[in-house]
Amino acid sequence: MNLDKNLLPHHVGIIMDGNGRWAQNQGLIRSAGHLAGVKTLKEIIKTAVNIELEALTVYAFSTENWNRPHTEVDFLMHLFSEYLEKEKRELNEKNVKIHFIGRIDELPESLIKQARDAENMMMNNTGLKFNVATNYGGQDEIVRATQKIARQVNEGTLKVDDIDADIFEAALDTCDSPPVDLMIRTGGDLRVSNFLLWQSAYAEFWFTETPFPNFKPEEFLQALSDFAKRDRRFGSIK
Ligand code: IPE
Ligand code: IPE
Ligand code: MG
After folding, report:
1. Residues 22-57 pLDDT 10s
2. What is the largest CA-CA distance in the chain?
3. Nearest of 36, 2, 4 to residue 19 by alpha carbon
4. Which of 60, 64, 138, 162 can pair with 197 through a Cys bridge, CB separation 3.0 to 4.6 Å?
5. Which is it for the CA torsion 194, 199, 204, 208, positive or negative?
6. Shortest-distance Cα residue to atom 1 of ligand 1
7. How many Cβ atoms are within 10 Å of 164's Cβ, its own excluded?
8. How far are the Cα atoms of 25, 107, 140, 208, 220 from residue 102, in angstroms, in the given order?
9. Is the pTM here over 0.70, yes or no?
10. Spatial distance between the Cα atoms of 57 and 41, rounded to a whole number of angstroms
11. Which of the residues 17, 140, 173, 181 is marked catalytic?
């Protein structure tokens, strides 16, 4: 597939959905789907690095996902740990800069440490900005950003009238990345599920029935190629 570099999105968000149903459809337990999802993610990252994408944010665990059975939540937390342990060296070699977004301080202690270690390891990398949304909720992020800003006002370092969209954006977890241009959701559902609410204000949406474990680089490239054909008007007219 021939992709025009100038027409690539700067920042892609992926709602990696459909793992559980993928597994259950084959008589496997839901966790088998999460395991398969990790394999897919590795391929997607490889592709993103190859095409020199600027930023990729993936939805790994939402603030609502705590409502799932303990066994599944535990499995996911272990899976994130294992993923980091196994992959961080290779990500680093690929010049990827990993960053965790969401309420990281509420994750298991050992995972927090691993996440911070990986971030420190890749801190000075200049390649793909890879944001992993873990215990992330878009509304929660907006509330936390508001708290940060309110504190600055309280301390007298910021005036209420100086608060604008740039200041707000700088208080978000994704302050290092450009706005989301392309939002992909696998798994067949047509909703945002509290992901990157502010950042996707003008994103193009791309939905597929394919469950995340079956989402191959070819389909990812198809989404990018479709994006290149979208007419983005940003409220203006041609
Ligand atoms: C997405 O897949 C992964 C996480 C939410 C962690 P699901 O686990 O939601 O899979 P489905 O949507 O139930 O098939
Ligand atoms: C969104 O998927 C969260 C992640 C992919 C991590 P969900 O499966 O949790 O979303 P809903 O429940 O279908 O909205
Ligand atoms: Mg789901």
Report:
1. 999 999 999 999 999 999 999 999 999 999 999 999
2. 59
3. 36
4. 138
5. negative
6. 17
7. 8
8. 31, 10, 8, 25, 25
9. yes
10. 11
11. 17
